[in-house]
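Hi all, long-time lurker, first post. I run a small reading group and we've been trying to get comfortable going from sequence to structure in the token notation. Rather than ask abstract questions, I figured I'd post a concrete chain and ask someone more experienced to write out its structure so we can walk through it together at our next meeting. Sequence below, copied exactly:
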Amino acid sequence: MKNLSAVFSFFLIVLATYWSFHSLMPQSISKSTTPDDQFSTERALSHILQISKEPHFVGAANHKVVRDYIVTELQKLGLKVELQEGYTGGDWGNLSKATNIISKIEGTGNGRSLVLMTHYDSNPHSSLGASDAGSGVAAILEGVRAYLATDKKPLNDIIILITDAEELGLNGAQLFVNEHPWTENIGVILNFEARGSGGPSYMLMETNGSNSKLIEHFVEADPEFPVANSLAYSIYKKLPNDTDLTVFREDADIDGFNFAFIDDHFDYHTAMDNYERLDRNTLEHQGSYLMPLLNYFSQENLSDLKSDTDFVFFNVPFFKMVTYPFSWILPMLILSVLVFIGLIIAGIRSKKIVLKEVGIGFLAFVAAVALSALIGFYAWPLLKGLYPQYNDILHGFTYNGHSYIAFFAMLSIAICFGIYSRIKEVRPVNLLVAPILFWLVICGYVAFNLEGASFFIIPVIAALVSFGILLRQEKPSILLLTLLAIPGLFILAPFVQMFPVALGLKILIASSLLTVLIFGLSLSVFGFYKSKKTLAIIFFIIAIFYFGKAHMHSGFDENRPNPTSLVYLLDADANKATWNTYNTVLDSWTSKYITDDRVTSTEGHHFSSKYKTGFTYSSEAPVKNIDLPDIRMKQDTVINNERHVKICITPHRHVNRLELFSSTPFIECRANGIVFDKNYLKNRGDRLLTHYISHNEDTELYLVSKVNEPIEITLYESSNDLLNGIDFNIPQRASDAIPMPFVLNDAIIIKKTIRIE
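-- Answer (accepted) --
Happy to help. Here is the structure in token form:
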């Protein structure tokens, strides 16, 4: 770049890219000196400090401690508190006894209620739950305190619902929806969640209908840092990512908003989900949603939120939210295609468009796309090959994940500049044809298959304007062309990071491809740069820096601990025992029990886990004298050619979980009085149910099968006390290791078979 305009242009592009990320969330927090009638993050943090001292999953000793703390804090605000307790089975076949915390601020009107919702249980068995969802509890406690300090009288009732057993299958939400009378009058729900410990909080809607009225109200409430787009909304509706709000939508047709932060995914459901790791700016972001929406919906008519019209929507710096109806999608696409065709015809007639140069531009762009896609496609398998320990990070986002995102993005830019540096005599107007055509094809596809992504047409329209300017002017203003490239950067650049953060590093191909596609829309600017080769070298060096940074942090230490696992399994039928692990790479701790003659285990593939993870290795272990559960047959009767069996399973040690498997095709299944849905029974596979046990309660099964059908049930009774069991003397992990999340870990498991001929 030899001229000042090009240098300034490059500076503007870098600044716009930076601002597209920087503007997503607050960059400072509200202090404890903030006026009483305003939300204070520092005050909210005091709640998280108390909530996240110990794991507080259902059945844990600290579960009641956390519940009592929340109840006390609500009572301090002058609110009456109700505890709703009961068994539910959820939609996941997980039985548990949930205890919801419920309170209400009475409204002056008789319209529908506003619900502020989160959950207070942490994930079994080692998560401290600071972010998931202590952050939600703290935000609601502080938000309600600030609201009450204003002495405002809400028109609508404000229900505070802190659910239990969300981590086990949305059980507390199911208990409230199906059994609490307040459900009938709910208008809208604000649900606060977390799937990591930092980053911006994304707004995601839940509705059985269309979204236009919800979006209109959200925009009217005017939160300061809205991060929401209809692409994420459309993808979320297609993925099996449920929250408590899903139960309200499915079971009671109640609409609402999720506010969830998903970055720093490596802390999710781990012992690192603690007070220190929670991003303070992220908590501020949650508060910046809560307060304006609480003030707005507490006074708004909530009886008319249903809609039959969908909106395309997206956030953009300075303008906050941009919305328009789905009915605009095809007209905008068709108009853009017609304009593009018209400009091509005009360019050919004016001899500005030269087919040979367009062909060279196509070859260059296709080469950049293909090479970046190839690298991105093999990125995650290659990284796991180079660093086998990454296989033990089950959710697929490593501690150095952001460095890898930056590496592949910078490498893609280097590839683009490197390829286009070899094109000497092709004018930018001809280089721009290929990327615009690619983007129009993409926009055409999403218009019919993923309508929520149709805002991609906005950067394309800006590129078409640049294309028109290039056709009309021999020496266009590079600064004007840069300004026209900025909408693409504002709208699209955050997705380079968001895709792998949301879906894991396996989706690095999306980051690589999107980087090239954004580069292509900016060729109206980059085509004028004279120092493309120099820029290619610079970006390659930056890429190498990020890879080197990732490499330096590819190991484990106290801040990036190794997720390790160890399980003791006693087969009471065969009187044999094994040590088992989910690790693919054994550290010094697991190697003490999993020896060199290890064999691939056939056990454990059944156990419930988020990613259906099974044991990787198993070694023989000493048989310990562990108290077996008592199994009593309470009924075995034939009624109308059906066999009715009642079995009671009583633990004789402190247990946390009972998992039952059976290939018998049961007609009916009840557990502790809860009837499991027939559709669930039909599609359950071999797994019958899982009981997350509180206070060593019995599991009473009532099963109905065909009269001549033999019944065989395999039970696995587990306790989370392997490291505390006096008979085992298992040392604690080193400071650079934590229990592996998402799997049954640190457990003493008894396997026993029940056969009823």
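A couple of things your group might point at:
The mean pLDDT is 94.
DSSP finds 22 helices and 23 strands in the chain.
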